[in-house]
Amino acid sequence: MKRFIDTLKNIFSIEELRTRILNTLLFITIFRLGSFVVLPGIEPDRMNFSAQGLLGLLDTFLGGAFSKASIFALGIMPYISASIAIQLLTMALPYFQKMQKEGESGRKKLNQITRVLTIIVTFAQGITYLKTTVPDEALLVSRSIFTVSSVFILIAGTMFCMWLGERITDKGVGNGISMLIMIGIVSRFPGAIYQEFASRGSSQILIFVLELVALYFVIMGAVMLTQAVRRVPIQYAKQVVGNRAIGGGQRQYLPLKVNAAGVMPIIFAQALMFVPSLVASLFAETSDFASNVATIFATYTTWQYNVLFGVLIIVFTFFYTAISVNPQQIADDMKRGGGFIPGIKPGQQTSDYISTVLDRITFPGAIMLAIVAILPALASLVGMTSSFAQFFGGTSLLIMVGVVLDTLQQIESYLLMRRYEGLMKSGRIKGRTESIAV
């Protein structure tokens, strides 16, 4: 306890770090207050929102702003969608690849394109959201006036959330966009614990305590999955500059992450899981089989749903790892820097070796990611409330763990720069954004 108090004193004794933490808390407070401001022209008590499937996941990310018809109802999600689209285009189209290699000017152009695409995505999602989520009985004005005004308000709200995220990144602690998503998720955690405690009652207090212990071990498992790496040794040859030999015999490591895809496979798989139920419901009136399929895949606790969900996660893990980690580029960078893997020739053989290692570690990583994704369904089956079960795995847990690790890593860097002790005795904290040492 004394070490913890001393660490807090060291953190707030650094003026820059103290200012950044206070700025982060201020921006987060503004974001949370905005999520309670309802769109004008609507009666929120008449909303009949059903938090199921992908819509329920969005409501979790946005801290309930989606179901409240808030001015931040879409939050930062359109920006996330636009960023993913630009990232995929960067990997597929030479025009975007060239722009990415132009340095700071290219990065500014990509950011500008992402912002414009964010407005377009918000416009499309806003119209769909208002049409499908807000019923006529909840409106205080005509539908046309409400739609036109609310679309502009939703676009402004999304751009303001994006601005808050950028300000947190520049003047706060951690990655601002990820921080806003995490805050939305964490904001529902106290209520979920209370609901679970109330459902168990005083007669089942021991079961409630065991559930909290199980949650602790699940979080530790998610931390292990997030930080697990396969370290490939790299040897650097001697370089002669003038009459001096420099860099001789240096050995570093290439950290290949077991879960290089992060939470993206779960998000992609979750987005597709409504398709079987949607397609089957079209033929439900004429086919008993289609009716059964629609019923099975409309519930996330059925074994058929979770088997398909797990398979999709495994497939998307390999797909996203393949497009996000380029063994050929890593091998070329190592060759230009005078580095090589002991026993492996530089160039194509190094690329093939890295690809083989990636395939071997991605499969167990994909299996573990699939298990984490279906844990909420298992928790619901054993009697937990759905709100509390969502914190036992899935996207919510991985996002929270990743953001907390990134933030703690940045705080620890400030402490070590000022010659203070780090946050951990056993070693430095590793976040998701750790660069590859080549």
From TrEMBL:
Keyword Transmembrane helix: yes
Cell compartment(s), UniProt: Cell membrane; Membrane
BP-aspect Gene Ontology terms: intracellular protein transmembrane transport; protein targeting; protein transport by the Sec complex
Keywords, sorted A to Z: Cell membrane, Membrane, Protein transport, Translocation, Transmembrane, Transmembrane helix, Transport
InterPro entries associated with the record: SecY, SecY/SEC61-alpha, SecY_CS, SecY_dom_sf
Topology within the bilayer: Multi-pass membrane protein
Pfam family, one: SecY
PROSITE patterns in UniProt: SECY_1
Family designation: Belongs to the SecY/SEC61-alpha family.
PANTHER family, A to Z: SECY/SEC61-ALPHA FAMILY MEMBER (PTHR10906)
Subunit structure: Component of the Sec protein translocase complex. Heterotrimer consisting of SecY, SecE and SecG subunits. The heterotrimers can form oligomers, although 1 heterotrimer is thought to be able to translocate proteins. Interacts with the ribosome. Interacts with SecDF, and other proteins may be involved. Interacts with SecA.
Record HAMAP family: SecY (MF_01465)
NCBIfam families named among the record's database cross-references: 3a0501s007
Name of the molecule in the record: Protein translocase subunit SecY
Organism of derivation: Arundinibacter roseus
Encoding gene, per UniProt annotation: secY
